[in-house]
Amino acid sequence: MNTSNFLKMLLAFMAVTVLIYTLFVFPKEGADLLSVFLTNVKNMNWSGQFNLDFSCYLMLSGLWIMWRSHFKTSSIIWGLAAAVLGIVVFAPYLIYLLSKEKGDIPRLLVGDRC
């Protein structure tokens, strides 16, 4: 199995796993994620540290999507969606790019900048 196919399978697994997990959590916990998230950060505990670190990764992934596509309107929309919804959006976007770039990882990373 080549690297591109392995990465596609891993990304699909991640997205589906988080989506299924979310479908179980949402009815139990509701849509009040933001207040729980911010309370953990405010409390200066390990959950807060993880949430802050994770939000930095989410922002970075969104900015990368926007940068890669030269901040076109569609890339801004995709970037914001990935920054908010995480791997459920980011993984399918990467799978799409892997297919579009025919498994070429450098082109996946930098697009037409290489």
UniProtKB/TrEMBL annotation:
This is DUF2834 domain-containing protein. It comes from Paenimyroides aestuarii. It comes from the Bacteria. The keyword Transmembrane helix applies. Keywords: Membrane, Transmembrane, Transmembrane helix. The chain crosses the membrane at residues 7-26, 77-98.
